[in-house]
Amino acid sequence: MSPNSSSNTPSTDDDLFANGVAAWSTRVRNGEFSFTDTVRYCLERARQNEDLGAFECLDDERALATAEAMDALLASRRDLGPLMGLPIGVKDIISVDGLPTTNGSNANTAHLSGSEGSVMKTLKAAGAIVLGKTKTVEFAFGATGVNEARGTPWNPVDRNVHRIPGGSSSGSAVAVSAGIVGLALGTDTGGSVRIPACFTGIVGHKTSMGRWPTDGIFPLSQTFDSVGPLVRTIDDAALLHTLMTGESITPKKSLAGLRFGVPDTLFMDELDKKVQDDFSRACDALVAAGAIRYDFDFPEAVERAYIMADILGAEVITNLTPQLFNEIRDGMDTVSAQRAAHGLSVSAVEYVAAKKRSVELAAKAHQSFHELDCWLTPTCPFEPIALSDIVSGKLHERALLASRNTQPGNMLGLCGVSLPMHKDGLPTGLQVLMASNADNTLLETAYAISDALD
User: Fold this and answer.
1) Is residue 82 part of a domain?
2) CA separation for the pair 136, 145 (Å, rounded)
3) What is the mean pLDDT of each run of 10 residues along the chain (454 residues)?
4) Which of 22, 272, 286, 351 is 20 to 30 Å from 61 by CA-CA measure?
5) Which of the following is catalytic: 91, 133, 135, 206?
6) Is there a domain that residue 203 lies in?
7) Active-site residue among 105, 113, 168, 336?
8) Is 168 tagged catalytic?
9) Is 268 helix (H, G, I), strand (E, B) or coil?
10) Is 121 a catalytic residue?
11) Residue 81 falls inside a structural domain
12) Are 3 and 64 in contact (CB under 8 A)?
């Protein structure tokens, strides 16, 4: 359905959300355009960028009707705050009343996600408008963004080559990066917010496990699942985190004395030259701004390979049930099916041992924060790869390392953000990790880090 034209609807050449939600919100309240005009703009921008494949479905009529109601509410001097009337995208493992949930699969699994949960209810109460459901890797079980079952979104950073968007929150990242929505929801179980943020050049916040509620969301892993935003600015990430938790966030103005650690083993292995160069420049910029770099080692990070595989595999099979998985696996995305199938062979002893070891390693990692304020690493070891190089097999194995640097954050129970760190060319990401439940400090520090990078 094509939106109606409006004399006040901004031109799609005007990226309404480039400077964040607050800047857009101010323009609405200054009378430049309305919430309805904004929704029309977003629907037109979605139509113009349909080839990106960011959305599983759009909710045109209801989004417009909700925007008109929000305009009437604002005219009556009832202001719900900066998210009022903001069109958002929602990853399609998150239930939204009145919209289908595919979980990125051709199989009927909507019942596994349940009814609309707390995060969506909170956003709607704040006035946010769901523009549509965004594409995801099947059952959120993949880091590249590739989905053979329902399609792989096109990364908007390169309009000539179909590059992977990162996953599993692929469509959410693409919709935000392309300026189709003001922000989008994703989930992060092994990097599924940070990886697509890295590859599409935006900001992704991996919240501490349990900080945001996960009801109404497909349960990939009860151990590692978290919900988080894909946004254009740290301001937007902070805005959402405050809404969800009530935690106030005051931006840090200075990095003087910030102790950041760069872990060597695993995180710095086999980086693309551009990733290495961008990361070195980012670290130098932080030091120039007064931060203190510490090179240290956490060799146990390599254990993420078996710990994550055993826990994730066992839990996704439990959530799907072995019977349902065996019924649908032949029609699933190849990589997602292979990763999930590993859970069929994980014994109870192996599962419990992996859980126990992850707790031990998390305790050790958190001890490092007695001497360090944060860990800094590249978010991903490479730039976004051309989809054809994965399909052909040329870079298939390389692509599987997309979550290599992000999975330890989940295994160790940390919170994190991915910030753009490139100056030109294809995007690269800077991953900042902090102790569990230090999200407010993480976001406060991310302000100063972003300023130093700029």
Assistant:
1) yes
2) 7
3) 55 95 98 98 98 98 98 98 98 98 98 97 98 98 97 98 98 98 98 98 98 98 98 98 97 97 97 98 98 98 98 98 98 96 98 98 98 98 98 95 98 98 97 98 98 94
4) 22
5) 91
6) yes
7) 168
8) yes
9) coil
10) no
11) yes
12) yes
